[in-house]
Amino acid sequence: MRDQITKYTGKLLADRSACADGIAFAAQDDVLITAGAPELAALAGGTLSRLNSLALVAARPSLPFADFLIARAGQGEECIVPQDTETRTFLHDIPFLRRQDLPDDPGPLLARLLGTRKGVIVEGIGIVAVGAITVEQAFINYSSVFHSTFVKYLQDVLADGFRLPGEREAFDSFRRQWLRPLSATGLDFIPALSQEKEEILAEIERVGRYTVERGLVDSFFGNISAVAGELIYISQTAASLDELRGCIDPVPADNSSTTGITASSELLAHRKIYEQTGARVILHGHPKFSVVMSMLCDRKAECAIKDCWKDCPHVRELGGTPVVAGEIGAGGLAKRVPPVIGAGGSAIVYGHGVFTLGREGFGEAFAAMVDVENFCRDEYFRRVDGAKG
Amino acid sequence: MFGWTGKLLHVDLTRGTCERREIPADILHAYLGGRGLGVRLMRDYFRLGPFEPDLPLIFAVGPLCGTNSPTAARLACVSRSPLTGTIYDCSAGGRFAWRLKGAGLDALFITGKSPHPVFLSVDPARDELHPAQSLWGKGVKETVAALSERGSVTTIGPAGEHGVLFANIMMGEGNSIGRGGLGAVMGAKGLKAITVQGDGVTGVADKERFEAARADVMRLFRASPVIFGELGIAEYGTPALVDLMAQRRMAPTENFRSTFFAESGNYSGPAIRKECGAKKEGCYGCPIQCKKASAAGEPLPEYETVNHFGALNGISDLHAIVKANSLCNELGLDTISAAATLSAFGEARGRFPDAAEVASLLADIAYRHDQGELLSLGSRRVAEIMGKPELSMSVKSLELPAYDPRGAYGMALAYVTSNRGGCHLRAYPISHEILRKPVPTDRFSFSGKARIIKIAEDVNAAVDSLVACKFAFFGATLEEYGELLSAVTGVEYGPESLKAIGDRIYLTERYYNCANGFSHAHDTLPQRFFEEAGSAGEGIEVPPIDRVRFEEELQKYYRIRGLDAEGGFGGRNLLAELP
Description:
The complex is a heterodimer.
Chain A: H1 2-14, E1 18-28, E2 32-36, H2 38-48, E3 55-61, H3 65-72, E4 79-80, H4 85-91, E5 94-97, H5 107-114, E6 119-122, E7 126-131, H6 135-160, H7 167-178, H8 197-213, E8 222-228, E9 231-235, E10 248-252, H9 267-277, E11 281-285, H10 288-294, H11 308-311, E12 316-318, E13 321-324, H12 333-344, E14 346-349, E15 353-358, H13 362-388
Parallel strand pairs in A: 5-6, 13-14
Antiparallel strand pairs in A: 1-2, 1-3, 3-7, 4-5, 6-7, 8-9, 8-11, 9-10, 11-15, 12-13, 14-15
Helix pairs in contact in A: 1-6, 2-5, 3-6, 6-10, 9-12, 10-13
Chain B: E1 7-12, E2 17-22, H1 25-31, H2 34-41, E3 57-61, E4 75-80, E5 87-92, H3 96-102, E6 107-111, E7 118-122, E8 128-131, H4 140-147, E9 152-155, H5 158-161, E10 169-171, E11 176-177, H6 182-188, E12 191-196, H7 207-223, H8 233-236, H9 241-247, H10 269-276, E13 279-281, E14 291-293, H11 303-309, H12 318-331, H13 335-349, H14 355-367, H15 371-375, H16 379-385, E15 394-395, E16 398-399, H17 409-417, H18 430-433, H19 449-466, H20 478-489, H21 495-515, H22 528-531, H23 547-561, H24 574-577
Parallel strand pairs in B: 1-6, 7-12
Antiparallel strand pairs in B: 1-2, 3-4, 3-6, 4-5, 7-8, 9-10, 9-12, 10-11, 13-14, 15-16
Helix pairs in contact in B: 2-19, 2-21, 7-20, 11-13, 12-14, 13-16, 17-19, 19-21, 19-23
């Protein structure tokens, strides 16, 4: 398991979600092992030893958003409810511990909280997330908590402005230093994808890596496919976008084989998009500013719909890209995205993410996703600046 | 009390009495229901032989049964298996469990032996035993039809009456209490059938919390490709796995001599849909509806059944496989053990049975005619009697299902640590090793598997006690089911507390088995898996399992469980420590 700890420590550094000197893992088989920053490692080990689970990560996020959310929360509040539909589906809510409520040995208390939830935020310390059966699962849960706190904090700032000392400065630092320009410049794509299996698989693998390396998405948030004749090649469920080798299922268009039962939960959406648009490839990810902006709606005050993320029947727009609601998997997303994506080649799903198309290859789909996210990022800051003014 | 009724029906077949008794609330809180409650109720009886009259046969529902909790209209049947000699439980759906709870009961506790065949009718107004001489000897369909006006029916067929060691108890809706021969236990008691007729409602302590938790579960079902995906089990039933297992090169073929059957496409999920006009059916109140039936309403075979009557015996004719499945259902035979016993028999004699011979041998088994007398004993005893004990592909005498352990090392370990013998459902590592849920693990590595299997066994023991369907956990987790349980009962439960209950149940079962002579020596796989390779293909090699590494991981597992190197309790009186 030490190799797994090394691998996922590296991933936390590569995606810049945790501070280099603030990462620790614990894992247990017949013995408990810990690795990483000594104080966090002790915390991780002391917590995991009380849980019937295999792994745990304790890390200090590279952004202070989770701590700000705790500080902004009301006195009686004990958890953060993620606003994006993806992490809300899997996390439900994220308990937090305030600094002043932290006992000398927080292990038992953390174990109790992690006995019912996948991740906990500890003010001043970081995110603690458990992996029931693998180290990778602890990493995924950390990433999910990081993603959901990022999205919620940005939403809250837009809605309520800054409230705490130092908050504005930290936000500016995030904006000027942490964020990096997004672009497709310098990336190689096959301009027109052939029907040849090996070429398709290699291109999907490469594009998956690009999405993570360029910071468009975190590695577990998305899926990719290409169609070739009667086959759809699609990334598998729970596959890491930057590690797709061996994790792409060929699925017959006529469902004559069920080998693709392990394919992404969005297989149905991909199939319907191909049927209605004639595209060659589809890219789907959860870029954060698109997720944030998709949940802004001017009509919320007067609208009777409460579960906007699944029930909203309207098609809104963000910079010309249609925004629709719909549940993931076998829910409504597969019905609402295909009719709207063909015209412009991209669509945003409320609180979830972005789908983009390529008519010949992934270059077009990748560029479209970059464009959507850049528009949403610019629009977000334009609104924040407008609110400040 | 919410969730539980707090009552069991104690039936003494020797004396012909039925009496409703209280179950202490602390026992229900500590063991939930289903498997856990049944295992706890076995505490004073676990040393009795499977056919001793005083051995109880227990049917127990769970606290979620009778509510709108997804997949929870189930029960567990618990006793001691005549096939394996271990403590035994089996989870089953249908309508029977829901009706039983509606009759105001958490469990049926049936003991004794009737001097003449009887059936038991359970009704909120009156529980009583009735003569059943006229039903004895009849098949399952006829028995169910004869009793259907009394509510939901569960019955044995001729196999249970004749003491076949892998006889099932069949539910009237086509479900079965399978694998371990509890049908033979019921038959030995002279109990032909049970009918239940109740329509009481299970109260929910916090309805708003319940609805929120239920919505969470349903959202996760819809997000799961295995459950509601267009290639998943809601569409194709468990035969959706046929193509996948073939591609992964781990479909047991010809008594596990190989792991790929070129003609398996004949009985894949899409082939069954096309050839048999498969339509959706399922357990009461289940949103998944993974069971499939023909246009005429005949239950169609599950994945294990199509593989074992198919590849395992070298048969590619779908209609012959469907016929074998229907015969087993009618006679009250377990399909996995029946097909695997025929396969071992076939290899031992040098010829696997063809489709026609399968049908006649199944009838012989059920009535213990001719060769059926031998085959009714299951593959371990058959192979020993034929002088080729190595050809029984079983663990603790339970025939292995349709996941070759050379293709999934967690599965290999889980087969031997299972308390009921070679079963895939105790830890169900196929979920992560093949189906990538909740996250994928490396199927050709033992790394971490001892801990993973232990955790999964605990989880599934809790699931079997709720009682929920394991397929629900291709999407949901104990987080959501813990919420459902807390909302229903008003008692707080979460994943960790449920796993602790699972650990308690698992260790109790292991303790019973150890007290009955089981030890490390029984925790092993057939020799074949350590010496022969499976079928390579599509870039996948399927080498023999490394015995040294296997044993190393098993010893890790023992340490994690708190067992000694022999897999035992080292003089510890576990039962004295438990509620």
